[in-house]
Amino acid sequence: MNNYLPKLPSLLIFLLLCRIMAAAQDAGGTDSMRLRYSTQHPADTVAPLPGVLYLVKFNKSVPVLKLSPYGLLKVLSNNCFILSAVPSDPHLKKNMVYADIANCNWKASDNLVTSITLLPATDSIAVQVSFKDSLTAMTMARISNYRKDYHTAVVKLAVADWPAFICQEQIHFADQVRKARIEMIVNTANPYVNRINVAQQLFPDFNGKSIAVSVKEDRFDTTDIDLAGRIIYNPDASNTVTSHASTMATIIAGAGNTGALGLGAAPAAGISSSDFNKSLLPDTSTYYRNYNITIQNHSYGTAIENYYGVEAVAYDQQIASADTIVHVFSAGNIGTQAPASGAYQNLVYANLSGNFKQAKNVIVTGGTDADGRFISLASHGPAYDGRIKPEISAFGQDGTSGASAAVSGVVTMVQDAWRQQHFSAMPSALLKAILLNSAKRPFGTMPDYKIGFGSLHAAHALQTLQDKRYIVGAATNNNTTTTDITIPANTQLVKITLCWNDPAAAANAPKALINDLDLRVTGTDGQTYLPWVLNPYPNADSLAAAAKRGVDTLNNVEQVTIDNPSAGIAHIAVQGKQLSGRQSWYIAYEFVPKQTFVWQQPTTNTLLTANTDVNFYWETTYTGNGDVSYSLDSGRTWSTIISGLPVTAEHLAWFTPAVFSKAMLKFQLPDTAFISPAFGISPMININVGFNCSDSVLLSWSAVTNASAYQLYTMGKTALQPYQQVRDTFIILAKSRLNSTYFAVSPIHIAGWEGQRGYTLDFTKQGVSCYVRALVADRTSDNFVQLTLSLATEYQLQSIAWQRYNGKTWETLQTIPTNGGLLYYYTDQQTWEGIMYYRVKLTTTDGRIIYSDVSMVQLNISGNILLFPNPVVSTLGIMDPQVRARQVVITDMSGRVRIRATITNTLEGISVAELPAGTYTCVIYYNGSRIFSRKFVKQ
């Protein structure tokens, strides 16, 4: 060890040099903060100058509250701030690296400042600004978009003019002009996780029929039968139709006409579209007023934006003013990213996608899995100033888009319930209080920065409203309002949530809260309980720490819980502090009883699909392990599903048996058992089109064991309606008597109850004409023509004649009787170079003659592209003698593009496994010109 002692002085000298170099670098103004936000570098001991702002950097993180006495204007990072005065506190001064005179760039977003520093002075840039009164006297910029209602505009200016422009007193804040992007395309929904199914069963009348909802993004499919008859057309909607927008609209308000996954939370609500490409600001008051919009869903985002920007101000302003409009946002799907600036720089927290989600009065929705657990994909809080975000979470296995839509759907149900009870629009802060208070969390857990106040619970929200477990009040400065609630016996938990719509703060404000209310609850034990408060300090351990009771000075939502309270009177006190005026507030409360077990799925009238994966849910205050079993004979015998399952799991996946039967579940604990209501297990049968002739159509389906009949449905104005009940597995419909081309079918059990309805189809779009599904002509390798006939049915069909056009007439090549199959082949060996035309002539048992469409093939002896096999099951082969890059486009019979691909090899395969059965056209392009086109049949 002593061998290293001679080297110690050299090491100390090296470390000292490093420190001197680092200090010199700071003094030289080369760090990024100085480059962007500093104008001069005075000594740290400089006396405060009137009207001068300072860029102050510390050598470690500093709590924001400690800087409030020095006029905190902006948090640039956890150790760098814009202040009105240089800190005089000895501890702060000790840790201060420098205190420069700041330039005006602090009035802009970090992303905008960074982009401007990279642009040459000769360039121009478009920015979005928030202004004081008006822009009539603006210099150095040209206004391209002006919103007087929110004191904001988009302007274009020269980069060289930026320093003078941003320093104008009338400019409060400037930001980039950003374009939103959808969070994620969602392909599944689960109404059971958030108890939407329970709410629909318990409160069937609250289906959204008195409410209009807006989906702000691109346009949803206005031809979707799940939205039929309820679309509110808007001339300002986007011209682009997307599946994402259609999915959001369906989760919110789908009628379930296409199938079970097409049923939304509020299937009777009106649904409108608003274009997010035009502006990220709220729509005009005219839009909401003219179309009676009281809910708007926003399943989109931008980048991480940790500041109170123009959009956040506008949404807070609109909600506080209108009082009855609810905006629901997805938190975002960038939960694994860290912000590059702000108080939470470089921490995997505070990664909400868009500053509009920093608003106080909106509802931001996080994402959970089927067990209600946070998913890492989901963006989460805190907000830029430490507030709780998201406020609530919902099922969003594939992202928070669907979670937001689920919350919007439940908001629609609650608004509808209020309107039916009170004949007026519901205050948005009351709705928010009810939604957050009724959210579900495991017993003993508190709000956090990942799932907010808990997981959405539709049934509890509506029950809160139904039981009138809410309080309405108002506060004035330094006054306290008190009210009492009676806690019943055997209560495990009482939960009380206070919410108010806070006035908008100024853009770029370091703290958003304006009116501060304090909630206190005195329990039946005489103890005072304060709200749960999270630690907003910019440190991963602090942000992950459990909430503690304390005085909340950040949020406009406060929640108090009391575990295992005694029965009696609890006193609620709301105190107004630092109010800008009279402030309305709303409280919701809930009592969770002890010793409860409630099946949430299945419930009465639940229908599960046979032979498929399903999920069961329950809620309980019991603990311990038990066995779950099912019975198909009214409880006489039981079959075990799983043993030793913790009852607190509250969730179980099961693969249903292939039966058509009533069933029950039982959760057996050591000393008690809980049996579910009887529910149905049913096969889901789908319709096939046998023929689609000019005067009639044949629909058929598979037989179901234990079915005595089948109920046929057809589309009405807004929903499927019973059409006819039949005992056969097919029906021939006269087209003259039909009002719709959409049909679905369900089995009727021999005991009289109805089973699962199958998917709805449009019989005109199944690729079936009069008996013929497709006739395909293909050139073989020896230049013969292989004909493939695919029939939809052989019902009353007697013979098939293969015919070829010889240039003058149609000649019959061969006539064969039908043989019970649906596929027939014929090879024409008498071919010639050029285009050949074929058809089939069908003869029925009653003498009717039916011709197929004409199929053509071009014979090119010098070489041609081959498409095989045809019909195809999963992979379509393409062979081309030439090596070249080609574009493949596969369309269905309606002309809609289903697959696009680029191929380069002489032999390639394209997967068509996901395509529904039917006839398709494959077109191949080379250098922009079509070189090949052929129909094929997908089985």
From TrEMBL:
<dbReference type="GO" id="GO:0004252">
    <property type="term" value="F:serine-type endopeptidase activity"/>
</dbReference>
<feature type="signal peptide">
    <location>
        <begin position="1"/>
        <end position="24"/>
    </location>
</feature>
<protein>
    <submittedName>
        <fullName>Putative secreted protein (Por secretion system target)</fullName>
    </submittedName>
</protein>
<feature type="domain" description="Peptidase S8/S53">
    <location>
        <begin position="208"/>
        <end position="454"/>
    </location>
</feature>
<dbReference type="InterPro" id="IPR000209">
    <property type="entry name" value="Peptidase_S8/S53_dom"/>
</dbReference>
<dbReference type="InterPro" id="IPR008979">
    <property type="entry name" value="Galactose-bd-like_sf"/>
</dbReference>
<keyword id="KW-0732">Signal</keyword>
<dbReference type="InterPro" id="IPR036852">
    <property type="entry name" value="Peptidase_S8/S53_dom_sf"/>
</dbReference>
<dbReference type="Pfam" id="PF00082">
    <property type="entry name" value="Peptidase_S8"/>
</dbReference>
<dbReference type="InterPro" id="IPR051048">
    <property type="entry name" value="Peptidase_S8/S53_subtilisin"/>
</dbReference>
<dbReference type="GO" id="GO:0006508">
    <property type="term" value="P:proteolysis"/>
</dbReference>
<dbReference type="InterPro" id="IPR026444">
    <property type="entry name" value="Secre_tail"/>
</dbReference>
<comment type="similarity">
    <text>Belongs to the peptidase S8 family.</text>
</comment>
